[in-house]
Amino acid sequence: MRSHLLEGTVEHRRARPVRYGLRHRVWYLALDLGEIDEAVRRVRLLRRNRAGIVAFHDADHWIPAAVNLRASVLGHLVREGVDPTGWRVTLVAYPRVLGHVFNPASFYLCRDGGGDLRAVVVEVHNTHGERHLYTLHGGSGDRLRGAMAKAFYVSPFIGMEGSYRVTVDERADSLRIAINEQEDGQPLLSTSLVLERRPLTDRALLRVLARRPLVTHWTVLAIHLHALRLWRRGVRFHRHGPAVAGPMAGEVAR
């Protein structure tokens, strides 16, 4: 079974106007969208579109909310001008845990029939209940590097004029994702995920649940806790508003 667990750390480093950092232990499901039902049959703790200790719901993802997530992703790739025939898509995201889920960012890793990482779709959620998709093309082998203009409100402590540079490096035993945000051409925030691959079994799922049983609940609490700390340090507050397209709109770096 290609679906697996990922366990490791998420780290944020803000460069200005104050230096601020955080680092947390996390775990994710990495679900091959073509074998979700098989994963549910093999892993008794995992449910699809039903209540459970750990559950995957198609409607927790995509715009509009998906009924069949794999079909939604493949249709999106076709509209992007790609022929995804024979492609394999792996979703890296938090599942629902005890009925709750919040994914600041989910990643759809799209590999062609030869196994090359050809595209990555980044699905971003904010605490206002909104979603946005960024699509990066041009990868090869196990790595994809790309850039995109900011087009979605995420944090009240970061303005809407900016751009991202993204690196995704997926190996047989690990996944590393780096997202670097810039404003006015200067570094602002660097985010990294460093994750190690684990088998998706009931035993492994019980182990990560025992270590971090409320990983999605903690994510929401941590967002507000760190926001309070930034506010107390006097970082400027930006109200919810539209993005201003930056110079990297449509740019893809290989």
What features would you describe in this structure?
- This protein is an alpha+beta fold and 254 residues long.
- The protein has one domain.
- The chain is built from four helices and 13 strands.
- The protein has helices at residues 36-42, 69-79, 202-211, 215-232, and strands at 4-14, 20-32, 46-48, 54-56, 88-93, 96-97, 105-111, 117-125, 131-137, 143-149, 163-170, 174-183, 186-199.
- The strands form two sheets. A ten-stranded antiparallel sheet has the order 9-8-7-5-2-1-13-12-11-10. Strands 3-4-6 form a three-stranded mixed sheet.
- A hairpin with a 2-residue loop joins strand 12 (174-183) and strand 13.
- The longest helix is centred in the last third of the chain and has 18 residues, at 215-232.
- The model is unreliable at 244-254 (pLDDT under 50).
List strands and helices in order, with pairings.
Elements: E1 4-14, E2 20-32, H1 36-42, E3 46-48, E4 54-56, H2 69-79, E5 88-93, E6 96-97, E7 105-111, E8 117-125, E9 131-137, E10 143-149, E11 163-170, E12 174-183, E13 186-199, H3 202-211, H4 215-232
Parallel strand pairs: 3-4
Antiparallel strand pairs: 1-2, 1-13, 2-5, 4-6, 5-7, 7-8, 8-9, 10-11, 11-12, 12-13
